[in-house]
Design brief:
Length: 327
């Protein structure tokens, strides 16, 4: 593994040398305790909670490593657990300390730098397909806007990065399409569920009871919600205007977020109905894994809310291609 410096505190009291392997960095609990100026017990407790709450997957974020350490006068190699950058960031957003605050400020700035400069993007290759590159720049600009305008939680920051990574992967898949542009392909999944206003209202009421909410949660301001549902089943010349299930799901999420039909809970309701629609049509899971994880869905909803109406077609293409880019 290669050694790199990833972080230096503003007061210059801490500088970490970390392991870089497989496009991520790895730290032990001891190194994280040093990074965040907390004791090992606190770091261990945060890590336990991260996995108990299913924020991250243990198998993909933990590995064993031989570390040389001094014990008395002897240097001994010990096998310890090390954790990848996802865990480091999640712990960083949980700890309460001056160093933890400094790290969160640093991490948010790095996230913005990542989005603006596009470190994860092979710019030269994408410039060869101008349509892809132009639409990807729009996605990055929206992600940057969200990062600038909102104080991000750990999950939201991770979701933005996951979304960008998933979308660049989706672009690779697009190379197989004619003209190398974002397209919407026909779903192979048979439609088994058509969302109706009555069922949607009942589902929203169930959501309110399950998770709690104000009296205004799900209360409609006008008739735009019913219109949003009807719009995804528009027809032209006797055929569905949005013929694929993925396209219907994308418009459902977009319309409910942008029409802002409810006094309270618009983004939560939109995300819930999107997942509900996918699940009822057997599209939510692929090989027992969600096609879009929770953090990425939060980021996607924030992006839609921050987008201009002129970006609608681009946002729909992003959502559809993420659904088609099954994990």
């Amino acid at each position: 593994m290669n050694k790199i410096q990833i972080y230096q505190s503003p007061d210059n009291q801490i500088e970490l040398q970390v392991n870089l392997e497989k496009d991520t960095v790895w730290l032990s609990q001891k190194q994280m305790a040093l990074l965040f100026d907390k004791n090992l017990m606190t770091v261990n407790e945060h890590i336990k909670n991260i996995y108990l709450e299913n924020e991250l997957d243990e198998i993909s974020t933990i590995r064993k490593s031989l570390i040389l350490q001094t014990e008395g006068k002897r240097k001994i190699k010990r096998e310890v657990l090390i954790y990848n950058l996802d865990v480091i960031i999640s712990v960083g957003y949980r700890v309460k300390s001056k160093r933890g605050t400094q790290f969160r400020q640093w991490a948010t700035q790095r996230l913005k730098d990542y989005l603006v400069k596009g470190f994860a993007i092979n710019e030269k290759r994408l410039k060869e397909t101008e349509n892809q590159f132009r639409e990807l720049k729009q996605v990055v600009a929206l992600l940057e806007k969200v990062a600038d305008e909102k104080e991000l939680s750990g999950n939201e920051a991770m979701g933005l990065l996951k979304l960008l990574n998933d979308f660049t992967t989706a672009l690779d898949i697009l190379d197989r399409y004619d003209h190398q542009t974002l397209k919407i392909k026909k779903s192979k999944t048979k439609e088994v569920f058509r969302i109706s206003y009555k069922e949607a209202k009942k589902a929203i009421e169930g959501l309110k009871k399950k998770f709690g909410g104000s009296d205004l949660f799900g209360k409609e301001k006008d008739k735009s919600f019913k219109s949003s549902l009807e719009n995804i089943y528009q027809t032209f010349d006797g055929k569905d205007l949005y013929y694929s299930l993925e396209e219907k799901a994308a418009h459902l999420l977009y319309f409910v977020v942008k029409n802002h039909s409810f006094i309270d809970g618009n983004k939560r309701i939109a995300a819930f109905l999107f997942v509900w629609f996918l699940e009822r049509n057997n599209l939510l899971y692929h090989h027992d894994r969600k096609v879009i994880d929770d953090n990425a869905l939060v980021a996607l909803t924030l992006m839609i809310a921050a987008s201009n109406p002129d970006d609608r077609n681009m946002m729909i293409k992003v959502i559809v291609n993420l659904l088609n880019n099954k994990p």
